[in-house]
């Protein structure tokens, strides 16, 4: 009798636990797929509701490397003043006559970039402003273990600094080097397209301050916006297309030397 | 009665620390505690001032901590794997080694994850990992895998301990304080070594030994995926998971040999841990050094031959700035053990231990070369030219915490040895019983 009862109990225990484990397993397999289906639906819905999809155009041919955008960004977004912490920065590319490429970005370009290569050695030189590319398939969003990094409905990749645990995994996941650890908050930090400004109808600080209109900000869904016009008039390219991240920052005049 | 007498003999022989601590034990505990205390102070500094007092910067966001993490988890994984294999095939010489292997497994899975916590910038928000986990992030997979592995290893280790706890409980003249007698009684979970109990325990241990192998492979594969699923040059490679599996085993067997050597030497167990154990482990190490060398070679060869710009940058860093480290890790660390272990004449206990030391150090360096140079050569050109941002050098904080981790490992090992026999008594008795009458083999299958 006694063993019988124990056996029954045991069988029941195993049945319940198997059901629980199996259920959890099935749920954990189905749940992510559900998310995938949802995100596609969301995009379709957004298009109907005419929600903006923010993007930026960068005209390398117009950039003069004055560094005003970097300075404005630091002031606007409270980016630490020491060099190296940048939400946006400018790289100076100098192709020498012997084929070497020199890439410099002292202090991110604040105070203006100066040429360090003697004139007679230069084949060509140009400036490339860089920032977060706000990828449609962002590797950083994929990597975040707590969901502190997310893509807003209007297409901006943001970091919720109250959720971020500072594991640095997104910083490594980003192939564009756009993220950094903020030494004050100790969490990941990056360009937000000045989300606090664009949600009020203003332009990002770097765009507003640019003296040559090398940065164009706008709504990719609005066919009459400056950005769409810029993309129609110029042959634009994104950085590292082969990584399949589908960025929303488009460059005109992108030379093959740019990394 | 004869068995009982033998049990008492073995209790004294196998647990040199249970009744009376080794004369040096107090000194060791003191030294190790000081090292751990320094580590804790370093941790306090890091917690209050942030990661800026470590060598980790925006490019190299992961440093020595993550390398120690891979190393310790690899140790644990390989311990689980080896012990599982030994139990599964019921290897005749396993009883002298399995206990050591199992202790290594559990201790390193406790020490290892501490290091990944140190990489986190906001430790105060650690619980967010459990409150708001997102299943698509490899880090979440890793947390699930490691916690499962930890629990599985604990259960497995406990199961293998139960018969010995029972023997200790049933040894009335054991000179230990009362609380420890109570502890043994509690931990023995009423195991009386009857036939049915023994059979049942054997069955469970066999099931767990299989599960532990599977869990360990999953945990270590997921750990390799943390790297290989990102787009970084040098990491985004399909070979990472199998490479991690074999290199983990390589370091694990190395550490087992070193600990076997030390225990044999300091606790006079020459009768039970014999040269053939070292030779067996040495041959396993030999095979693993070949496999590890093969995987490493084919990884770097493919990178060099396919000539992608980012990979070439990485190789330039490896063969430029890290030339000597590269030679030490991937040539000396593979070829020296290979050379020592493949020549039968020089395969002595000392030389095998030396080969193991070289293998373990080489492997740690190899992990360093996987993590740091990749982060130093990202896709984008580095914006500022300040050298401390370009190149990673670990600060004393990181070294202090690393050594504290190793010290904690050794300290726990010593304390466990104070509590349990270092060679499984029950298995030795069963083995001897099996030799007396071959009938008992029926238990094993």
Automatic annotation (TrEMBL), chain A:
Superkingdom of the organism of origin: Bacteria
Pfam families given in the database record: Fer4_11, Fer4_2
Keywords: 4Fe-4S, Iron, Iron-sulfur, Metal-binding
Residue ranges of every copy of the 4Fe-4S ferredoxin-type domain listed in the record: 54-84, 123-154, 155-184
Molecular function (Gene Ontology), one example: metal ion binding
Presence of keyword Nucleotide-binding: no
Protein name per Swiss-Prot or TrEMBL: 4Fe-4S ferredoxin
Automatic annotation (TrEMBL), chain B:
Family the UniProt entry places it in: Belongs to the NrfD family.
Major location (coarse): membrane
UniProt keywords, alphabetically: Cell membrane, Membrane, Transmembrane, Transmembrane helix
Subcellular location: Cell membrane
UniProt xrefs under InterPro entries: NrfD-like
Record-given protein name: Molybdopterin oxidoreductase membrane subunit
Superkingdom field: Bacteria
Cellular-component GO terms for this entry: plasma membrane
Residue stretches spanning the membrane: 27-45, 65-89, 101-123, 143-162, 207-228, 248-267, 279-302, 322-340, 352-370, 396-416
Keyword Cell division found: no
Pfam families found in the cross-reference section: NrfD
Keyword DNA damage recorded: no
Membrane topology: Multi-pass membrane protein
């Amino acid at each position: 009798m006694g063993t019988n009862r124990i056996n029954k109990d045991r069988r029941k225990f195993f049945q319940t636990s198997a059901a629980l484990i199996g259920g959890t397993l099935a749920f954990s397999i189905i749940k992510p797929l559900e998310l995938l289906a949802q995100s596609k639906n969301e995009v379709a819905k957004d298009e109907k509701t005419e929600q903006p999809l923010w993007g930026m155009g960068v005209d390398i041919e117009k950039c003069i490397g004055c560094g005003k955008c970097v300075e404005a960004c630091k002031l606007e977004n409270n980016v630490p003043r020491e060099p190296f912490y940048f939400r946006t920065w400018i790289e100076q590319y100098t192709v020498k006559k012997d084929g070497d490429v020199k890439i410099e970005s002292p202090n991110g370009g604040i105070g203006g970039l100066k040429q360090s290569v003697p004139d007679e050695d230069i084949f060509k030189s140009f400036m490339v402003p860089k920032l977060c590319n706000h990828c449609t398939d962002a590797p950083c969003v994929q990597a975040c273990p707590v969901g502190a990094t997310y893509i807003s409905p209007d297409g901006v990749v943001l970091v919720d600094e109250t959720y971020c645990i500072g594991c640095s995994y997104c910083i490594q996941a980003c192939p564009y080097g756009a993220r950094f650890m903020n030494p004050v908050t100790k969490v990941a930090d990056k360009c937000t397209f000045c989300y606090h400004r664009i949600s009020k109808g203003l332009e990002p600080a770097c765009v507003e301050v640019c003296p040559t209109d090398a940065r164009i900000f706008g709504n990719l869904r609005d066919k009459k916006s400056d950005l769409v016009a810029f993309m129609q008039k110029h042959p634009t390219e994104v950085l590292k297309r082969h990584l399949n991240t589908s960025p929303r920052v488009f460059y005109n005049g992108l030379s093959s030397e740019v990394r | 009665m004869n068995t009982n007498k033998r049990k008492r003999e073995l209790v004294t022989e196998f647990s040199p620390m249970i009744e009376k601590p080794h004369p040096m034990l107090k000194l060791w505990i003191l030294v190790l505690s000081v090292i751990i205390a320094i580590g804790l102070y370093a941790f306090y500094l890091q917690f209050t001032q942030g990661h800026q007092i470590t060598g980790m910067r925006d490019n190299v966001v992961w440093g020595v901590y993550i390398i120690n993490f891979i190393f310790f988890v690899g140790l644990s994984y390989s311990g689980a794997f080896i012990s599982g294999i030994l139990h599964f095939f019921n290897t005749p010489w396993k009883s002298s080694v399995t206990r050591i292997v199992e202790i290594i497994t559990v201790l390193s899975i406790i020490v290892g994850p501490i290091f990944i916590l140190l990489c986190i910038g906001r430790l105060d928000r650690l619980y967010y990992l459990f409150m708001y986990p997102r299943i698509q992030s490899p880090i979440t997979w890793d947390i699930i895998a490691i916690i499962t592995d930890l629990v599985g290893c604990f259960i497995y280790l406990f199961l293998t301990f139960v018969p010995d706890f029972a023997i200790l409980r049933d040894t009335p003249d054991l000179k230990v304080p009362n609380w420890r007698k109570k502890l043994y009684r509690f931990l023995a979970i009423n195991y009386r070594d009857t036939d049915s109990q023994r059979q049942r325990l054997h069955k469970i241990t066999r099931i767990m030994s299989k599960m532990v192998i599977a869990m360990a492979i999953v945990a270590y594969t997921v750990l390799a995926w943390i790297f290989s699923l990102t787009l970084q040059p040098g990491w985004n490679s399909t070979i990472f998971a199998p490479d991690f599996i074999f290199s983990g085993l390589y370091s694990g067997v190395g550490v087992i040999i070193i600990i076997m050597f030390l225990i044999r030497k300091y606790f006079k167990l020459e009768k039970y841990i014999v040269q053939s154990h070292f030779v067996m482990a040495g041959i396993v190490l030999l095979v693993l050094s070949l496999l590890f060398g093969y995987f490493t070679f084919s990884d770097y060869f493919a990178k060099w031959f396919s000539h992608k710009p980012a990979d070439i940058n990485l190789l330039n860093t490896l063969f430029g700035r890290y030339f000597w480290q590269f030679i030490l890790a991937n040539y000396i660390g593979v070829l020296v053990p290979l050379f020592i272990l493949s020549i039968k004449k020089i395969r002595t206990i000392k030389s095998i231990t030396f080969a193991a030391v070289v293998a373990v150090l080489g492997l740690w360096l190899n992990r360093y070369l996987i993590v740091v140079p990749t982060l130093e050569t990202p896709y984008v050109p580095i914006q500022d030219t300040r050298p401390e941002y370009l190149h990673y050098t670990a600060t004393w904080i990181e070294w202090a915490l690393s050594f504290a981790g190793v010290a904690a490992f050794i300290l726990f090992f010593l304390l466990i040895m104070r509590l349990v026999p270092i060679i499984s008594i029950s298995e030795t008795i069963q083995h001897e019983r099996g030799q007396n009458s071959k009938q008992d083999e029926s238990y094993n299958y």
